[in-house]
Specification:
By secondary structure, the protein is mainly α. It is built from 8 helices and no strands.
């Protein structure tokens, strides 16, 4: 069995301080998800569009037109989709928080007992669970119930506008690479240059997402590259078949 180096090395206190300074993993992973999803969608979908058109014709004008149309539609679709989904999530969270706020106003003792019971379920003995619940109620009862009972941080609700803008921007950034690669390449090299550029971009996004999330790097890269190559291969051959049928 290979030996694994300690996470904290020889300074556990510094490691714990740095981890605390990183803030909420939930918020960071949500941002990472939106950015990686947007960039990968931009890379793969735009590459699929332009390579599909290139399978039918090497004329740069229809390739550029299709690529720009795909970039614009994709960025707007990502923005609208993120805005709608995050707005629905935020509305649900607000409704749950309002319900919890009313419960605390109308039945404070029952809510205190409920919170103590939740801490008992987590492994605290009844007396300690009661003391913890009482202290948290005195400090911020709503936050205690929201985080323990609902898994919501009332001070850190996701912004629909931020999610929409970040998704649109990341999609656009991802789309630009395959579009420039196929438009600027010589005619006989358009497809191989684009495939190489897209593969390199997917390796990069896979690496960055794995490093940021602390997950296995090779698995993330393989997943990105295989999915991207499959999408480009399918759209290329569809373009070839349609091009021959129409031509």
């Amino acid at each position: 069995m290979p030996t694994t180096e300690p996470l904290a090395g020889d300074d556990p206190a510094a490691y714990q301080a740095a981890e605390a300074a990183d803030g909420s993993h939930h918020a960071r992973l949500n941002s990472l998800r939106a950015a990686v999803l947007g960039a990968n969608d931009g890379i793969v979908s735009t590459a699929g569009i332009v390579i599909g058109v290139a399978g039918a014709t090497m004329d740069p004008f229809p390739i550029l037109t299709a690529g720009i149309a795909g970039l614009t539609a994709g960025a707007l679709s990502m923005a609208v989709g993120e805005y709608v989904s995050v707005s629905a999530q935020r509305d649900t969270e607000r409704a749950l928080l309002e319900k919890e706020r009313r419960e605390l106003e109308e039945m404070p003792e029952e809510e205190l007992a409920e919170l103590a019971g939740l801490y008992e379920q987590k492994g605290l003995d009844p007396d300690l669970a009661r003391k913890v619940a009482e202290q948290l109620h005195d400090h911020d009862a709503l936050a205690a119930h929201a985080e323990t009972e609902l898994g919501i941080d009332p001070d850190n609700l996701t912004s629909p506008l931020v999610a929409a803008v970040s998704s649109a921007v990341s999609f656009t950034v991802g789309s630009v690479l395959p579009l420039l690669a196929i438009v600027l390449s010589p005619t006989d090299l358009k497809i191989p240059v684009t495939v190489a550029a897209v593969t390199a971009a997917l390796i990069l996004t896979g690496y960055l997402s794995a490093r940021a999330g602390g997950s296995p790097i090779a698995r993330a890269i393989l997943r990105n590259v295989v999915g991207g190559l499959l999408a480009m291969g399918v759209t290329y051959w569809i373009g070839r078949l349609v091009g021959h049928a129409v031509g």
